[in-house]
Amino acid sequence: MHQKYVNLPQLGGRWAGAGPGGFTLVELLVVIAIVAVLASLLLPVLAESKAQGKRISCVNQQRQLSLACLLYTDDHGDRLPYNLGSVEIRATVARGEFWNWTSPVMSWELDPDNTNTVLVTRGGIGPHTGSVPRLHQCPEDRVVSDLQARAGWQQRVRSISMNAMVGNAGEFSESGANLNNPYYKQFFKLTQIPKASTIFLLIEEHPDSVNDGYFLNHIYSRRWTDLPASWHRGGANMSFADGHLEFRRWRSPSTRAPARPDSAQLPFGVPPGEEEDFNWLMSHTSVRP
Q1: Which terminus, N or C, of the chain has the lesser number of Cβ atoms within 10 Å?
Q2: CB neighbours of 207 closer than 8 A, spacing ≥ 6?
Q3: What is the CB neighbour count within 10 angstroms for residue 167?
Q4: Using only C-alpha atoms, what is the Rg of the chain?
Q5: Which ranges of 139-233 does DSSP label H, i.e. alpha helix?
C-alpha cells in the first residue's frame, strides 16, 4: 500500500482541504484589517464607557457626602459643619478633638494623613457617612508623588473639599465674616444661604491644592488659590447646598492643569481671556451681605 502525500498550498492559493467556500490569504488579510478597524472604533467607546462609570460612581459618593453634611445640620441646630484651615485642623486633632468636616491635611510627602482612612471619617460628618472612607475619594484620583510611589503608595484618601465660605471657618471667621473674603457672606447656617441651589457645598479639587479640604479663592483677587479638579473629561462634580449635584466642564486651559504633583503652580493669576471658569465658580461661592 502506497502512502499518499498532500502538496502544501502555494502562497495566495486556497487553504489545503478548503472547498469552494474557503478563504484566500488576501481575503483573510482583508478580514483582519476590518476587525482591526472595528476594534479601533470600539476601544474609545469602551474607554469612554469606563470613564463614565467612574464619574457616576464619583457622583454617587459625593451625593452621600452632601447628604451627610445636611444630616449634620439637622443634628446641630441648622449649623453647617466646621470647615477649618490646616493650622487649626492639626491643632484640634493634636488635642484629640475632631471638629472639622474631615481631618487629614494632605501633602506630597510621607505624612500619615495622606493614607489614614480612619482619620478621614473621624468626627465632623463622619458619623453620617457610615465611616466609609472611599466616599471622600474620586475613583479617577490615583495621583501620588514620586516619593510616595517609591514607598508603595497607590493613592491618597481624599479628593473632595468644602467651599471655604460655608461652615464655621474657625479663626478665619471669628468676626462673623471670613478674613479671606471680608466683603462676602460666610454661611454658618444652612438657612443663611439665600438660594441654596446656587451655592456649592462640596467640590472635587485638584490634587495640588486639596491639602486641607478648605476650598478657598479670594473672590476679588482674580487669582486661583485653590483649583478645581478636572478628572472627568476636563470637569468636576460639585454638590450644592440644596442637595443637588452638577457636573461642570471647565472652559479655560489654565483651569485644567494636569493631575500630577506641582503641575498647577498655585497661586496664579487668571490669564486674560480665561476668566469664565473663575467668574462662574466665584458667583456660586458666596454673596454680598
Answers
A1: N
A2: 141, 143, 156, 159, 229, 259, 260, 261
A3: 28
A4: 27
A5: 146-150
